[in-house]
């Protein structure tokens, strides 16, 4: 895929990363108020206003969303018109939580099944609410940085950027260290970005969690056939990016798997081909250090 040419001046650096500490909480959602309110209430109970959430199961009712679309005269990529379902069965969702103009904000990509059995995905708007059979969320609060949403001068689109802030003594004592959050800017390959963040953080073994953003199309391996498949651009939204980083022979190696939705609303999934997945507008990356060595499981005959 060719890099996108955005209308505004190029921002430096191209990867903006912050070291943070984390605390987690389980959140059983209810059907009485919007998703964003309930996730931020959970963050508030954790003593922060920024973090990420992983959501699964249950229903959204109503669901308001869009999918990526082609370029306009003002932007290198755009969104479709708003689409809606009275109800949809959630499979999985990634959410970045932070603030915009001083108010709670979220960026969420989800994968669901419609009531007629069709699988869909997209960028979930703030109006979305849990249904009577509400989803379940694992909410992770971050300390030492804040996700701030602003209109990006390069892409002219709303983006989250991690901004450093001081942790309180209580937060420092109760939260777990070993996490980096990062914004990856346009036209940086996501595999390269993960490796660069890990090198700079000194991580030898790590897990990629709840990453979401957009690629210039996508290039991935179909695990069933081993064939390389493509999703066309100018943008494909990443519903979830997960993976592992290991040190092999003294060198960092990464394997990333993504669930994606293209501009036609078609769902894709597979192992990403290194060097072939450039960020389109932005990518919110979370990487957590793993301190316990890998365990080799030896299967023994009974």
UniProtKB/TrEMBL annotation:
PROSITE patterns associated with the record: PPC
Keywords: DNA-binding
Acyltransferase as UniProt keyword: no
Keyword hit for Ribonucleoprotein: no
Pfam family, one: PCC
A GO molecular function held by the record: DNA binding
Domain PPC: 174-302
Top-level taxon: Bacteria
Gene3D superfamilies noted in UniProt: Hypothetical protein, similar to alpha- acetolactate decarboxylase, domain 2
Listed name of the protein: DNA-binding protein
Species whose genome carries this gene: Microbacterium mitrae
Lineage of the organism: Bacteria, Bacillati, Actinomycetota, Actinomycetes, Micrococcales
């Amino acid at each position: 895929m060719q890099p996108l040419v955005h209308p505004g001046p190029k921002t430096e650096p191209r990867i903006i990363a912050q070291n943070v500490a984390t605390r987690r909480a389980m959140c059983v959602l209810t059907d009485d108020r919007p998703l964003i309110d309930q996730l931020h209430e959970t963050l508030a109970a954790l003593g922060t206003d920024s973090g990420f959430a992983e959501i699964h199961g249950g229903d959204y009712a109503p669901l308001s969303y869009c999918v990526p679309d082609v370029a306009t005269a003002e932007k290198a990529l755009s969104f479709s018109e708003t689409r809606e379902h009275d109800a949809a069965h959630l499979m999985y969702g990634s959410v970045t939580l932070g603030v915009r103009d001083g108010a709670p904000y979220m960026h969420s990509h989800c994968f669901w099944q419609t009531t007629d059995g069709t699988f869909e995905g997209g960028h979930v708007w703030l109006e979305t609410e849990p249904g009577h059979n509400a989803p379940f969320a694992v909410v992770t609060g971050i300390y030492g940085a804040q996700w701030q949403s602003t209109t990006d001068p390069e892409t002219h689109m709303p983006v989250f950027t991690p901004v450093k802030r001081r942790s309180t003594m209580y937060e420092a004592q109760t939260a777990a260290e070993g996490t980096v959050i990062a914004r990856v800017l346009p036209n940086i390959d996501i595999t390269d970005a993960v490796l660069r963040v890990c090198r700079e953080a000194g991580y030898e073994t790590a897990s990629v969690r709840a990453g979401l953003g957009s690629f210039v199309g996508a290039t991935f391996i179909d695990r069933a056939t081993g064939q390389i498949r493509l999703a066309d651009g100018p943008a494909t939204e990443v519903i979830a990016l997960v993976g592992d980083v290991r040190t092999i022979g003294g060198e960092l190696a990464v394997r990333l798997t993504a669930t994606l939705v293209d501009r036609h609303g078609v769902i894709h999934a597979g192992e990403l081909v290194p060097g072939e997945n450039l960020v389109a507008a932005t990518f919110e990356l979370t990487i957590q250090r793993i301190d316990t060595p890998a365990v080799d499981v030896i299967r023994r005959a009974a």
